[in-house]
Amino acid sequence: MSDARLNLLWLQSGGCGGCTMSLLCSDAANVVQMLDDAGINLLWHPSLSEASCDEVTALLEDCADGRTALDILCVEGALLRGPNGSGRFHMLAGTGVPMIDWVRRLARRARWTLAVGTCAAYGGVTAAGANPADACGLQYDGAQLGGALGPQYASGNGERVINIAGCPTHPGWVTDTLLAVALGDFGARDVDAIGRPRFYADQLVHHGCSRNEYYEFKASAEAPSQLGCLMENLGCKGTQAHADCNTRAWNGSGSCTNGGYACISCTEPGFEEPGHPFGETPKIAGIPIGLPTDMPRAWFVALAALSKSATPKRVRENATSDHAAVTPAIKRTGLK
Questions:
Q1: Cβ distance 7 to 68 under 8 Å?
Q2: Angstrom distance (rounded) from CA 50 to CA 34
């Protein structure tokens, strides 16, 4: 790590603030102190800092004009371009200037620019529906390059925006990215094709899922609260969604699938409008449309038929129960 400290500025745009709430659930007892120990100086955060009004305006002007070094710019929430490209649907209070204009000025100075959460990365929930605010991500508009900063944007280190996607994003994804930046160990090789950090995006939510035995035998839940696999009937995209949610659980134990709710692939552009109810699995001829990543349809059909024919009674009955109705058989496991 360099002896020089890094200045971090965090702005909140069009969103719910959920990524900051998630960050406060970091494994670190004091996330601000953890960043400080790593050599990252939090210049300002709208929810965590005491400075306000003229103090903040002066700080933003100093960063935008280069008088104060801006090493890391974090933006949470979608950028609102409306109405008619003016950005005036979201004015930064006390400045008379649209937030999108501040972000563009500051991004020109930042050595690293981070989109925190799927709204900041791709538009997210804020851009759903008719999108009257013309919301978009920092460098993506949905799945397409563009966004508020444009497809050609590169921060001071020559890299595109780092998209720490998730709704909300996991606190560990944020802190690990910031620590890697502080160590000088994060670059283009460390993000996937749509800008997400590979340390979590190269994995699938399916990995480590507590329902994997039910998935293997295609023993499916048919209603909420049941123990079976959620893919076949209840809309789960865990076999397609890129994240490490079940191997890096929230608060040490939680994840959507562990809590009985289907994965909706919230790290993906456009997840907010899947074209069907989140809790239902669309099918053609009884076969789910969204099949596991990298698996040909014919293979899945053959495997599903074989798996269902071999499903143990315990797995089959427990799949449609809200508790383990049948316990595993007791059997000696000694090898001879």
A1: yes
A2: 19
